[in-house]
Structure formats: structure tokens, C-alpha cells
Amino acid sequence: MKFTAMLTKRYKDTPADCQIASHIFMIRGGYMKNVGNGIYSLFPITKRITSKIESIMREEMDRIDGQEVLFPVVMPAGIWRESGRYDSIANELVRFKDRSGNDMVLGMTHEEAAVQLARETADSYQQFPFMIYQIQTKFRDEPRARGGLIRVREFTMKDAYSFHTSKEDLERYYAICHKAYERIFARCGVPEVISVKSDSGMMGGKVAHEFMLCTPVGEDSLVVCKDCDFRANMETAECVYENLNTGEGELKKVATPEMKTIEDVCAYLNSDTKYSIKAVVYQQETDDAYVVAFIRGDLEINEVKLRNYLKSEIYPAQELEKAGLTAGFIGPKGISKDIKVVYDVSLKTCDNYVCGANEANCHYTGLSIRRDIGDVEYVDIGKAIEGGICPICGKKTLSLTRGIEVGNIFQLGDKYTASMGMKYIDKDGTLKTPIMGCYGIGVGRLAASVCEAHHDEYGPIWPMTIAPWQVQLCALRSDNESVKALADDLYERLQAAGIEVLYDDRQISAGVMFSDADLTGIPLRVVVSPKGIANGTVEISKRDKSYMEKIETDKAFDSIKQLVKSMLDEINNI
Amino acid sequence: MKFTAMLTKRYKDTPADCQIASHIFMIRGGYMKNVGNGIYSLFPITKRITSKIESIMREEMDRIDGQEVLFPVVMPAGIWRESGRYDSIANELVRFKDRSGNDMVLGMTHEEAAVQLARETADSYQQFPFMIYQIQTKFRDEPRARGGLIRVREFTMKDAYSFHTSKEDLERYYAICHKAYERIFARCGVPEVISVKSDSGMMGGKVAHEFMLCTPVGEDSLVVCKDCDFRANMETAECVYENLNTGEGELKKVATPEMKTIEDVCAYLNSDTKYSIKAVVYQQETDDAYVVAFIRGDLEINEVKLRNYLKSEIYPAQELEKAGLTAGFIGPKGISKDIKVVYDVSLKTCDNYVCGANEANCHYTGLSIRRDIGDVEYVDIGKAIEGGICPICGKKTLSLTRGIEVGNIFQLGDKYTASMGMKYIDKDGTLKTPIMGCYGIGVGRLAASVCEAHHDEYGPIWPMTIAPWQVQLCALRSDNESVKALADDLYERLQAAGIEVLYDDRQISAGVMFSDADLTGIPLRVVVSPKGIANGTVEISKRDKSYMEKIETDKAFDSIKQLVKSMLDEINNI
After folding, report:
1. Quick check: B36 and A78 CB within 8 A?
2. Which residue of chain A is at minimal alpha-carbon distance from B153?
3. Which of B3, B121, B216, B445 stands 20 to 30 A from B550 (CA)?
4. Is a pLDDT exceeding 90 seen at residue A479?
5. Does the pLDDT at position A472 exceed 70?
6. Which parts of B246-360 fold into alpha helices (H)?
7. Which of A100-109, A558-567, B47-56, B265-274 has the lowest mean pLDDT?
8. Local confidence band at A206 (pLDDT 50, 70, 90 cut-offs)
9. Is ipTM over 0.85?
10. Is residue B323 a contact partner of residue B292, using CB atoms and an 8 Å limit?
11. How many whole angstroms separate alpha carbon A172 and alpha carbon B284?
């Protein structure tokens, strides 16, 4: 395509609301147009990228025996009522009435539609397992759309649903799909994407993984072992602690006037916070009951773990006095029996704690939970820390990082099949409920994430496999007859050879042409110029600056072809 | 793919609400699942068909320099308010509020989004013309979804929008797009689709064509000349009439007691209805004013034409007496001057009419409009008739038929660009408003229409270019080792050769296998059977029954390959 024919416009300035690289470059480079909050139209350059990503997804889904289907964007509320999600999901789910007054929803995910399609069709064990997938528009009325294509309300998603007659078969296929996801990310040029265990949230089910592209601008906190392959989302990362081997001390009540934080108290007592017990008070959403979470003073409560343990949403407690709690001086010893108490596993590591005495201006020193409180249940409700102990290899090699979630996979179990009454006849003639896995990747978010991973200060550096075009042909001084003749000839021969070329023959300065090319991010650049022609060469360079050569004019075509092939192979052969 | 692995189920009985072939076979053959009124999920077999149709569309759109984009399904009301359609379209347009209370719509078409994308980008005459297109989900809250995929509420559409700086350039490109549409339909196996001039309806603009597949089950009435290439939608088909050359008669008032229809009156007077004037009374929606439409007694009023002439919606008149009209006896002579009167062009053909006398139980005979009424404006408001005169070739060769609209193209003019303030700087430095064309094809409706055009009593006969698979391989008695070995070998070799094979190796009766194959509609069938093996042959046949041969086993692979190729070429080389 000629650059002049491409519908796009580039901007010099960065819009005020753009904070991350992909958002900045995709707005400045004319990749997309904001239509409404979290809603974009995609220009041709982006559609070319997303179409290539979709093709890779299709190939990898077909390779693991996926069958492509299409579910509707608009669904009647009925099937969402069957699964219970019509009522359980808040206003991320768009609900409206059609012209006849029927309740309708916009699909934000398609488990219900998948079960509805499968339950009438797959009624014998012989038809299992199978996987169906679609690439389709979804709408989630996100409260905080942000970061361009990273967090939007409307998006194209590849979502897949597998159906199985046993947990073992689901686990077998889940592993296969995990590998397919690794191939998808590698083929899209981000082999560095890692998978981490995650909380399955509103999707239900137990085992789930998120695929994360590690980047400081990511929304998710990750815990990664530097030494082994342990990786987890902060929300669910298991914590283990080394024993502090303090031995017991003598229990004493000490005056700690006006010291309301455990840090103040420990400083006053000249003690490290890790030899103290911190109390954090919540209330449960289900019944407003107070819950005191005790954790070692140097650690923080992980509210996702606590919520999962309590099986209730929680919120910061109000009016502690009403519950008989003395704010700032709460401790395990002498706390009202009516209050629910949770001990973090970190409290097993020491036998000699500083802690609140449940009385204003007083703390204990020398508290041993075992001796002074008795047998308690220890629960893992803490946040993993930098340099913490890896629960797999046991070394102090945990590292905290941030990531963008570019995909996720879930072992759903029977959450949807049971609630929606899907049954099959098993070998023995009995009716059974199949179990499901589901597997999603957002197309636009993946494109933006690739840009986050691969850019420099001037623009994106698209991997050859998903680049909008493979070669950017720049004719400097296309008013020069020799330049135009050579560039035109290369353009035609490369296209005839099946190579995608964006041909810039505008009569503009080299500076503007190259900065436009930087924003377009095409991985291979070919420059035809009067100076090059005088020397009998064209200049070929990679957008990532790892390569630049002046190639003899008559070898240029073969060199370009070879470079495109090797750059494709380099990614695909990972 | 193996038949057993395909997610689908076939049904013996035709559901009660299925009336047309495509609906019947696509439900019975497990092509789709009804999710709600006019909303379907597509099974893998259908997605394979629609994906092929989409690929053909993409190729043809790219070939005429189209650039693929993606507009959102959900749009803020703002841009629809700019064009005026937020208020002018009734409840086919789904409106809802998002979580922040903003008015949103579901895209039922994307002119607004196209102008919004283009208006910031294309601001110089040098950037024109260009065409952008997408293949995307649309939702129209149709009052009468029916006929399976023929008339739905949610559908996938290929919609394209071209932008031009002159009417001549729009007309030039419109003709190019018309040809691309002909290629799309031909490549999808329905070269018989015709284009007819149409009323542009809510799309605005003046010149428009509908692409129609002629079939008795179509919703649209068409007027087609048997002798030349005149084709029009009944809604807009121009009518011409031959002069009846009656000469003038003497104006007489005659008693016609209790005769309320023009047919009764003419029978009583022993006159042909074509020598009479029929009156049909409407009221305008804009102001409820009464309108009397006069037309020759043998013809019918075309309400679309009348509405367009009046520039108002119309409805059958109520309470004629209130307006001073004598129901059953209304005629041109003596009618109240306060009533709006419209004369059809058919009334120019005779000078000696029977007509109402605007007085109970009385008609005139011998009325001459020229002599007795004076100069009147004649307007074309009649319906074309079978055997009527072709407005192009002048012969009495008009034929009425029915058709399914499978695509449409519109010269929109500046309706959207002007209302939405799109401007470009012309050569002379002045700001001008570009003009647009738009071009749509519904993917699912086209698939169903192909089935309407190509089926027999047993199922669809998919054209090779869009068939879900190219070859159906039936292994009769796959428990027979020789059968299985030969069928397996063919399956693998054909797939390796890039041929799409659906392989049925179920151990079922030949009858069930063949009737399933009929419903699957794959154009080429290969049967491996014990009997064939004994004779050293496999049986190859076309689904449309035009070919059946027993081919020597060792020549089967080459024959199949050759047949697939020739069946593809047959369609593509039209």
C-alpha cells in the first residue's frame, strides 16, 4: 500500500490523558480513535495487526482441536438467570429491554451461551471432550477504562470453552491449552509472557492461571521466584516464613501512651516490628460482623486471601468501640470472645511478641501465642514480600513485579453445567454433569501489550509476525527519477513475492518520513535515496536498530526477502 | 475433521415455525441454535461457511482499494444525535444508559462512526477518494424476525463507506463497487443475483441498488423485464402505460345505487375497469390532512411512491364524512377544493372515464379529465403489473417476481458528512463537504440465501467456494479393515494436499450416513464400501446429482483433487 492511500493521521503532541507507551504511540500514530469512554474505532493499521493476531489464535485453537463458533453479543436474560449471573454481577453487565420489553444483556463473557449451545448437542459421553471457541466483540461496562486498548469497555476477545467428562481429562486439556497459549504469545512476539496462578474471581472454579506480560505499567502485582519457576498473582501467592527462633519471653504489660501504630510501639520498645503482632480490623459484608486479622508487624494483610477464607466480602471496620475494641491497642490476649479472630501463618515464627493489650495505652511484651493464647488456627492471609521465601524452592528469592494480564485460563468445574442443567449419558447409562474449562485472550489488549514490550522512545517496534506491513519502503526524493524507478520496481517485485510493503513516496523531508516510519513501527525499513543510488546501494535496517546495512542495488530484493523470512522464523521457531 | 468430532446434532422433524428451505435445513442440520427472538448462535459448520464468505468479501473489498477498519458495536448517542438519527429512527435502534447514565446505542449501521473516523483524518482533497469497510456484528431490533438467518435481529455485516470530492467520482466508484458485489455473489455461488434500483429509505441519498436473489420466498417484490435489463424494486419501479385512444365521451351522471367498489360499478355499466377512475383515500402523518389518490380502476396505488411524493408517511383515512367525502362515490369532478388530490400517470391514457360523482349512489360516465377538470399534474404512484410496459425497452415484457435482498449500495451524497460537519480543504483552499457512498452485505443472510437457491428436498447443496468442507468421505462399514485402511489413507492424503475433508467413519447404516451427508450439503462425496473395494473402486458423486462415477481405487485421490479444483474454477471463473 502507498502511504498516501492509508487512512491515518499522525500527531506530534501527546494527549494529556495518555500515560503509557502503547496508549501514547497508538494515539500519536493514528492507530485508533476514541469514540466514547473505553470505546475505540480501529484504523486500518491496527486492524491489520489485530487480524494477524486473530489468525495466529485461530491456527493455535484449531491445532488443539478447537471448533470455531459464533455466539451473539446480545443475549436474552434467561440463560444468565439460569447461571445466576444475571443477579450476581454488578453493573459491568449491561442490561436493557428490547422493543417487546424483554430483559436483554450484552455479552461480557460467553459461558452461558457455550453451555446453551452444547447442552442440546452433546448428550453422550462419546461426544466428549470438545472445545469450541469464537473471536467476537464483548462489552463490559468497566468503571475505570484507561490506558488506551489496555483497559476498555468494548473489545474483541478470543474465548474458548472446553467440555469434559472427568477432572483428569479437564486437567489434561488445560495443560494442552496452556501450551497453546504459550505458542500464541511467542508467535505474537512476546515469549516473555509468564503464567501465574490466580484467583478465579467471578468466573468460579478453582484452578486458574493468568498470562502476564511483566511491565512496570501493569495493573497486576506479581510474585516471581528468581531461582525456580514459581509465579503467582499477589492476590493468591502462598507465603512461607522462616522461624525466628526467639524462644519464649516473660509476659509483661507495658505502658505505651499515645502510641497507636505498631511501628511507634516497636521504636519505643527498641524492638524490630517482626517481633510484634499487628491487628487489622474489618467487617464482613454478609453480616457486618467484626473480624480482627492478626499478622506479624512487618507484614501486610492480603485482603483477597482473607476474603476467600471468610467467604465474604470485607470492608474496613467502623466504630471499633461499639464492638469493644480499643483502637491502636488490639492484641490476641484478652480480646472479647465475641470477636472473630484470624491469625496469619507468619505468627507461627516467633514465641516472644510485642502486641496490644486490649486496653488503652498498654501493650504486652513477651507474648507467646502457644503459651498465652493456646491452640489457634493459622491461616495464610499475608502479602508476599520482596526477598521473601519461595514456597516451591525455599530460597529467599521472591521478587515482586507488575504485569498486564494478556490472557487467562480457568478450570471451571461444573459451575455452569450444573446450574444450567447440562447432562450427558455416561457409559454406564447414568446421567452426569460434564465439567468445563474456559480460556480467554483479548485481541486489542494483546496488541497494546506487545507495544508496551516492544517500543523505543520514537514508537512501537512491531514483531514481524503481527506487524501491519512487513517492509516500509522509504523513497527519499521521489521526484528524483532514479529513486522513483528503483523504489517502484522494489515495491512491485516485493508485493509480487507476497511481501507486505508500505511504500512512502511522499515528497517530504527525510526527518518527517523517518519519524512517521518510527510511529508505524514496521520491523524492516528500506531506504532508497539519491545518495544511495550514486553509491549503487539501498539502505536496509531493522526498526529495533539491531541491523543496518547498505546493500548493492541488485541484491536488495533478495536481501529483503531473506531478512523478512529470517525475522519471521526467529519468532515462529521459538 | 472426523464427523464424530464435530459439535452438531441433526433432527428428523421440521420445527413448526420453519417455513422456508434454508430455515428448515439449517435447523434440522444443526447449523444454528436459536438463543432468542432473531438471535442465533452458529455451530462450527455454519461458522466455516460464513468465514469463507467473509474471506471472499475481504478479497473483493481489498481489490477495490478498501481498507479494513473496526467500528464499535456500542456507541455513545452523541454521534447519532449529530446525524439526527438518534431521534429519527424508531425502536429498531436499541438505546440504553451505561453505568454513568450516558445514553448509548447499539450499532445497526455505521455511517456515523465512519464519518467520525474519517473527518479528523481526511482533511485535504489529496486524501480522497478512499473506502473503509468492516465485518462486524450489528443489532437491529426488528419487529418481525423470521425465516432463520434471513431476517434476524443480530447479524454479522460487511459494511463499507466511500468518501469522495465530487458526484462524478462517487458515481465512478459506485459502479466499481457494483461490479465487486457481482463478483462476491458469483464467487459465493449465486451469480443469478440481480441488482435493482431501490428506495433508499432511512439511509438517505438518491441513487441506490438492492442486490436480489430471486426466489418465491423472498420478502421483496421485484419488477423485471424479460427482454432487457430493466430491474426494479416494486417500491420504486417506474410505470408507463399505453394510450387507450378512447376519444371523448359525453359526461353523464348515472345512478349506481349501493355499488361501492369500482368493480361493481363497471360490471353494472358493462365497462372494463381500465376505463374507470378509482379513488383511494389516505391521511398524512405529518398533519393528518386527507389525500385522495386517483388511479385507473385496473391498477393499484404504490404507497411507497405516494409517500415519497407527499414527503410524509401516510395511513388509511378515517371518518371520510368529516372531510366531506362520500365513501364509494369519490371522483375528480366536484370534489371539495380543500382536499389534496393526486392523479396517477395512468389517468393520462383515456379521455372517457367512469368515476364517482361525490354524491351518494351516483357515478359519472364519459368523464374527460382534460375537458372536465382541466390541467392537472400527473404523478407516478401506481404499482407495476405483470405484462406491463417496460420503461426502458417499451415492450409489454414486465414480470413480477419476489426476491431476498442480499446486499445494497447507496449513493448517500452529503447527508452524513454535512450533518456531522466533515470538511476538507480543496485545491483552491476552500473548505468543502465530501460526499459518501455506502455498501452493505449481511453475511448470515447471504449464507441462508445461497441455501435457498441451492438445495433439494434432502438438504443444502453448498457451492464449492463456501462449502463447510470440500469433500465428504463416507466409509461404509468402517469395521471392515480394507474399508478403513483405504478411507484413512484417502483422508490423510487429501488433507495433506490442502483439501478440506469431513470424514464419516461412524458404524451406522448407509441410509443414515447419506441422509446426514445430504443435510451437511458438502458438494463432493466419496464413498468407500466393501462392495466397492471388491470391485477395486470408490464411488465419487456430486451433491447436486450431476455426476456419479466409480473410480479405480488408485486413481481416486487424483480424481477427487481434480474435481475439487474444477468445481472451484467453475464458480470462480464466471
Report:
1. yes
2. A74
3. B3
4. yes
5. yes
6. 262-269, 303-310
7. B265-274
8. confident
9. yes
10. no
11. 69
Please state which CATH class domain B460-572 belongs to: alpha beta
**What distance in Å separates the CA atoms of residue A229 and residue B566, rounded to the nearest whole number?**
55
Rounded to 10 deg, the angle between the B44-63 and B167-187 helix axes is 140
B-contacting residues in A 104-163 (Cβ below 8 Å): 104, 106, 113, 116-118, 120-123, 126-127, 130, 132, 134, 136-137, 139, 141, 143, 153-154, 156
The torsion defined by the Cα of A398, A402, A406 and A411, in degrees rounded to 10, comes to 40
- Where do the CATH 3.30.930.10 domains begin and end in chain B? 19-231+400-452
Instruction: Fold for B252-379, please state it.
Output: YbaK protein (3.90.960)
Give ranges for CATH 3.30.930.10 in chain A: 34-220+401-452
Residues 6+ apart with CB under 8 A from B302: B234, B235, B381, B382, B383, B384
pLDDT in tens, A313-362: 999 999 998 889 999 999 999 999 889 999 999 999 999 999 999 999 99
3-state secondary structure of B335: coil
Which pLDDT does position B202 carry in this prediction?
Answer: 46
| Portions of chain B given CATH number 3.40.50.800 | 460-572
Angle, CA B291 vertex, CA B290 and CA B295 arms, to 5°: 150
pLDDT for B201:
53
The CATH class that applies to domain A252-378 reads: alpha beta
Is the pTM higher than 0.90?
no
Q: Name which of A72, A100, A153 is nearest B35 (Cβ-Cβ).
A: A72
The CATH class of A459-572 is alpha beta
**Homologous superfamily of the B19-231+400-452 domain (CATH):** Bira Bifunctional Protein; Domain 2 (3.30.930.10)
Where, residue-wise, is CATH 3.90.960.10 in chain A?
252-378
What the block records as the C-alpha cell of B168 is 462524478
Q: Does B270 touch chain A (CB under 8 A)?
A: no
CATH dotted code for A34-220+401-452: 3.30.930.10
Question: What mean pLDDT is predicted for residues B359-363?
Answer: 93
> DSSP string spanning A190-257?
-TT-EEEE---GGG--S-EEEEEEE-TT-SEEEEEESSSS-EEETTT---B-----------EEEE-T
* Residue in B99, B140, B158, B425 to test binding to A, most A beta-carbons within 10 Å: B99
Do residues B281 and B330 make contact, with C-beta atoms less than 8 angstroms apart? yes
Model confidence over A497-550: pLDDT tens digits?
A: 999 999 999 999 999 999 999 999 999 999 999 999 999 999 999 999 999 999
DSSP codes of every residue in B504-542 = E--S--HHHHHHHHHHHT-SEEEEE-HHHHHHTEEEEEE
User: What is the length of chain B?
Assistant: 574
CA pair distance B379, B310, nearest whole angstrom: 11
